[in-house]
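User: Sequence in, structure out. Go.
Assistant: Echoing your sequence, followed by the structure tokens.
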Amino acid sequence: MSTPVARDRAAPSEDSSETQGLAALLPIGSDLKARIRVLIVDDEHTLRESCATVLRQDGYDVTVCGRGQEALELLKRRGFDIVLVDLYMSQVDGLMLLRTALATNRDTVAIVMTGNPSVESSVEALRQGAFDYLPKPFTATHLQILIGRAVHALLVARESREQRTA
């Protein structure tokens, strides 16, 4: 069982790459964050709720789901901008959810997380379209930075598509 999202022990130093990463993400306004729909799918209640708490405090519109089958139904009914999915769950495989999320909404940014990381699973997740691969456990700051990067990628993809169709 994975541990919940760890609170950061100390603030990053001003010269650290984490601080520079956060500074690059600061322009995401609260009005934009409130319009970003995030789906978190993990069968581990504590981790799922920890991630949701961090992202809700940041202002994102977060939906959580503990079962893969339920997530498949949600993906069919409602579009999500970012899907954070556990790789290994009972019932439905995380890669199947990844494929469904990407097929349902071409703008979706999918992030695969796992408590059992391997080179093989990371390569396969990225090959199937994952934006990133997140080994557990991870810190709240790491999650915030990754979601910020995903938002930026989402916005760039949308803007690029709009320019092509204009």
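User: And one key feature?
Assistant: Helices lie at 17-25, 30-35, 45-57, 68-77, 94-104, 119-127, 140-165.
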